[in-house]
């Protein structure tokens, strides 16, 4: 292995058994085989067994951050546990150069019976730092974790968010050669999450990172490569992180049904997506103008405004187009009206989106109709960017 490679995984796999009874039996059989010097794990799957991770290979160097993404049960945590050494691989080889720091669960790497301060000394010693170095670093660790006044109690009395703060702060101030992070930031508040995400590029100067997350914006921000797992198999691997994220969304493409709510005074009777005045066939090419023909009716005292929202597959709002901007209002006479909403060119990343509509009384805020996910929109294009909206801009030398 070249010196600069911090983690090398070659054809790594882990098998588990669905039945506890069979798993116990296989455990005894494997133990006996190993006792007489026979290798285990290489044989075909036995009854009830499945591959939690299969045939995964990658190399990771300092300065790199591999995002491991995939649906629930895809094998992400199993992979991290194999990399950390807490679970033995049944297939392939893992080599890690140097020290590992793992946050595979809140409190991982911390000693629950020791106080926060004692944990700082214990962790520093474990990573090969002296007591004097730990003492010098202590104020910065406490400040980063925002745990002033809390460090004298045992870590088992910390909330899970506080444990993550201390655990991450230790990694940040005594960076090991390899850092494994498993979805830990999910329990932190927005402020600390932002602090950690901001710190990761600095950590990468010292360490190679493996980052498991279900938050695609976080993955897009910090990862230099991604591996997408599905049922234990790696279905995408590479440096094109946005393309990997798209592969992830394709695997767990949400089947989100349309949902309606509101007072019921407005109705969405029909909707057509248009490209160049014609019904949109298939995907909208990147950057092209989208229009919507909406058949609507409303019966109310005031003419309501219309608001269209485009969301990503996680239903995060990406674009909003509100008719109040242009002063447009839907007649509230109870008759059926066809409304043309021209959204202009959409510079959305290729992928899947959903459309939602709100019909509301602007003055009172009363919602006459909220129609969520009433249509799906697929955007097609070659260029995948790190943010949901990609604009060309105009670049010139002054
Ligand atoms: N100790 C175990 N014994 C048996 N099966 C297990 C064990 N640990 C994990 N599994 C199974 O292995 C598969 C992969 O689990 P893993 O925890 O690695 O998934 P994951 O991708 O991390 O999921 P999530 O996103 O839900 O955290 C799942 O089917 C899980 O039920």
From TrEMBL:
The keyword Lipid metabolism does not apply. One of its GO terms (molecular function) is ATP binding. SMART domains: AAA. One of its GO terms (cellular component) is membrane. InterPro entries: AAA+_ATPase (IPR003593), ABC_transporter-like_ATP-bd (IPR003439), ABC_transporter-like_CS (IPR017871), ABC_transpr_TagH-like (IPR015860), Bact_Polysacc_Export_ATP-bd (IPR050683), P-loop_NTPase (IPR027417), Wzt_C (IPR029439). PROSITE patterns: ABC_TRANSPORTER_1, ABC_TRANSPORTER_2. Belongs to the ABC transporter superfamily. This is ABC transporter ATP-binding protein. The lineage of its organism: Bacteria, Pseudomonadati, Pseudomonadota, Gammaproteobacteria, Methylococcales.
